[in-house]
Write a structure and sequence with these properties.
This protein has 390 residues and is of the alpha/beta class. The protein is 36% helix and 16% strand.
């Protein structure tokens, strides 16, 4: 897979290591320095050097990360925020009372909470719909719709939407399309190339990759849109700090290698769980019986490192299994080198009302796995012993 930016023909793996970064011209340092400074000397009033005047607005370490991520997504620009939700909030800050957003009904609980409990009170309107159904999305769009907000694969049911079709629909209706690409990463999927206007990432996850940083990003091609988003980022103060920027830059260098192993392990675990007598259903795009398996093969390079499954039992059974693992760690979040296990209904998606969760298909006994890069045999054996508690 190539990921060209500004005419670059370098492949993804090369861009991940070099894009946005050059040896320091003063001393030849190979790694991007961490610029621990809040302010910068100006040559004259209102004449900052290379555009740097205050680190809430811009910071050289953050700039390097933004350029690196833009290259990986095939974007012209990137903006990095203090978290994925801060990036999403920056996006919503562009809206005005009466504006409308259409989003998937199977999405991260924190996204639902931000929309419904934080922004709806200011006169913004949100409609949640099954984004695997193009007709349903089309019916949900209104004259006042400003964003079509997509997750694919979704969190936690791992459903896919047809990015090209939905983004074309949004463009036809004058609606900005935004794709949360956190689960897939730019190594597996590049929504901008499929017609999306913006891509959002929780950099906390696979791009950081080591469960040691919280960060987010927006990436796109429209310079006017970048200026608007950068204004809100600066005005609100949701920017990413230099040390966190450095940690994500370190993470992107090994993204391709890690994702290959995540995918390899997840494929094996999904197949194993699908044959287990205590498992009612496995949700993984790489399985041939997944409803969007063919679509996944079309718009993704591989099927990702996330696996969800339902037990033949309730939330109590799911809790017992998730609490019994020894290699998988019971914890929220995902995308690190270590494997994690969680029960969404009482953890990451507890902020979504139970009736809304069930209507979207999120069963109480669902377990979500973030499959790490450990030896797959150890992961399978760990799940085997834990499933005895179901």
């Amino acid at each position: 897979m190539s990921s060209a930016k500004h005419g670059s023909t370098h492949r993804f793996e090369t861009l991940a290591i070099h894009a946005g970064q050059t040896p320091d011209p003063q001393n030849g340092a190979v790694m991007t320095p961490v610029y621990f400074t809040s302010t910068y000397k100006q040559d004259a009033p209102a004449q900052p050097r290379q555009g740097y005047e205050y680190s809430r607005t811009t910071n050289p370490t953050r700039t390097a990360l933004e350029q690196n991520l833009a290259a990986l997504e095939g974007a012209h620009w990137g903006l990095c925020f203090s978290s994925g939700l801060a990036a999403l909030a920056g996006l919503v800050h562009r809206l005005k009372p009466g504006d409308h957003v259409v989003a998937g009904n199977d999405l991260y609980g924190g996204t639902y909470r931000l929309f419904v409990r934080c922004f709806a009170q200011y006169g913004l309107e949100f409609t949640f719909v099954d984004t695997t159904d193009v007709k349903a999305v089309e019916r949900a769009l209104r004259p006042n719709t400003k964003y079509l907000y997509l997750e694919t694969p979704t969190n936690p049911l791992l459903r896919l939407c047809d990015v090209a079709k939905l983004c074309a629909l949004a463009k036809k209706r004058g609606v900005l399309s935004v794709v949360d690409n956190t689960f897939a990463t730019p190594f597996l999927q590049q929504p901008l190339a499929l017609g999306a206007d913006l891509v959002l990432h929780s950099l906390t996850k696979y791009l950081g990759g080591h469960s040691d940083v919280v960060a987010g990003a927006l990436l796109g091609n429209d310079d006017k849109l970048r200026a608007e988003l950068a204004f809100h980022q600066n005005a609100v103060g949701g920017q990413l700090g230099p040390m966190d920027s450095f940690l994500v830059l370190r993470g992107t260098k090994t993204l391709a290698l890690r994702m290959e192993r995540h995918c390899e392990n997840a494929r094996a675990i999904a197949a194993h769980l699908a044959a287990h007598k205590k498992v009612a259903r496995v949700m993984y795009p790489g399985l041939k019986d997944h409803p969007q398996h063919r679509l996944a093969k079309q718009q993704m390079k591989d099927f990702g490192g996330m696996v969800s499954f339902e037990l033949k039992g309730d939330v109590a059974a799911a809790t017992r299994v998730a609490s019994a693992t020894q290699v998988f760690t019971l914890a929220e979040s995902l995308g690190g080198v270590e494997s994690l296990i969680e029960v969404p209904t009482v953890m990451t998606h507890a902020s979504i009302p139970a009736e809304e969760r069930r209507k979207a298909g999120l069963a109480d006994g669902l377990i979500r796995l973030s499959v790490g890069i450990e030896h797959v045999d150890d992961l399978v054996l760990d799940l085997e012993q834990a499933l005895k508690k179901a």
